[in-house]
Amino acid sequence: DYLMMTPNVGFSEDGEGGSRSVNIAIRGVSNIALDGVAAANSIGYYIDEMSVGVVAQGTINPQLQDMERIEVLRGPQGTFFGRNAVGGAINITTRKPEDTFFFEGSAMAGNFGSWGVEGIVNVPFNDKFMMRAVAAVEESDTAISNINPTGNDPFYEYQTARVSFRALPSDTVTLDLSITQTNEDEGGDIAIPSGVLDLDTIETFGFGSPFDAIDTGPGFYPANDDTIDRDTREWNEKEFTIINGRVTVDFDTMQFKSITGFIDSEFKRGSDLDGISLEVGPLPLRRVNDYSAESFSQEFRLQSTEGDEIDWTIGWYYAEDELDTANDIQILPKGTGANGDPVGFINQNLRRSEFDTWALFADVNFHINDTVDFIVGGRYSEDEVFQRDSDSNRDPADNPVEDKVEFDDFSPRFVIRYMPSDELNIYVSGSKGY
After folding, report:
1. Does the CA dihedral 15-16-18-20 come out positive or negative?
2. Using an 8 Å Cβ cutoff, are 146 and 186 in contact?
3. Segment 376-408, tens digit of pLDDT
């Protein structure tokens, strides 16, 4: 909903990473994906001020229970928000632990075996230490059934939990820690035949046109809206863990903030690649993806808290990201031939990507008068990118190709803002994306 309500923002759910896979575009800028996963996103994603770097499923689609607010910023946001914010930034803020007890619970049920429960609890242990937790479970058999006995029906299972702690050791120091764990499991893509063949089917079996699809029985949409004919077992499994630690120290006229983040994510997928049944084509063709990623980030920020004429922010940022992807193309059933080669093995490619980045940034807001502001900012970044690729129909170690490249960039921004009233905001901005 928040994406659809924002002008100049679009998104697609292509299903190639499960029903919650999403690709976001802001003002026409979106990810450039290789093998369905973008190593570096073009949209900056932030959860409680922590930059979400590389995740195994490409673009993170986190739980949105118990939110305080969601902000969508359009245009390059590299100066203040930093990395990978060429198209814009999405800033998600969760509700923090409070000093009063609170509980909320809900449940839902629907057809096709759909049900879900959700709960939120806030517990103040004392006036210096408090906790808030949210958990949700959702399951569905889905409206789609597979008529092929060698395949499986799509289903949907989703479990997520977040626990947050807040400590107030003094009047000027706030310590926050949150841990989020999410698991998603689906028995294949929740999608039905459209009458347009997948490119892999065309290239593998030599069909002359993407519209030469074969009606194997269930028919195409819109005549068929709930039946598939897939001859291989399919799965979409996603898991991620987010650890976010923040330290805030208040001084008389400024505030210091430390933001430490760690993300561990996995994405496993098996899909019927050819999209046609065993009776029509040759042996079943399947793609198997196995992706994993780790991301660590640390940010230090110092900003003014009281400024009649000037507000300012300065900061330093560092991040390390690792992404491993493995893609297998298989003809089933798999066996062993006379020479020991796997009969069902067509091709495998492996990729490892590593990113090391640091940045310095500053942003200054000059209050010219009560209605006019002039904002100027800049961010200097350095990145080191390493990648190793191998692509083979036998041993992936036969032909690895690797390289390491360094990049640097300075991204400025300038804004003139006129606010004659609380209801009207007129501004002109110029910013550079990196």
Report:
1. negative
2. no
3. 999 999 999 999 988 765 555 567 889 999 999
> Contact 332/277 with Cβ under 8 angstroms?
no
329 and 287 Cβ atoms separated by less than 8 Å = yes
Distance set, CA 48 to CA 52, 176, 180, 261, 331 (Å): 10, 10, 12, 10, 45
Cα separation, 161 vs 65, whole angstroms:
9
Q: What is the pLDDT of residues 140-186, one digit of tens each?
A: 998 889 888 878 888 999 999 999 999 999 999 999 999 999 999 98
Cα dist from 367 to 115, 251, 415, 424, whole Å: 53, 22, 12, 17
Rounded to whole angstroms, the Cα distance separating 208 from 193 reads: 18
What six digits make up the tokens of 340?
Answer: 């020991």
CA distance 368 to 197: 60
Say yes or no to pLDDT of 201 above 80. no
pLDDT tens digits, one per residue of 343-378: 566 777 888 999 999 999 999 999 999 999 999 999
Give bridge partners of residue 18 from the DSSP assignment. 16
Which residue is listed with tokens 């561990």? 264
- For 94-139, the pLDDT digits (tens) are 999 999 999 999 999 999 999 999 999 999 999 999 999 999 999 9
Residues 163 and 228: their CA atoms lie apart, in Å, by 40
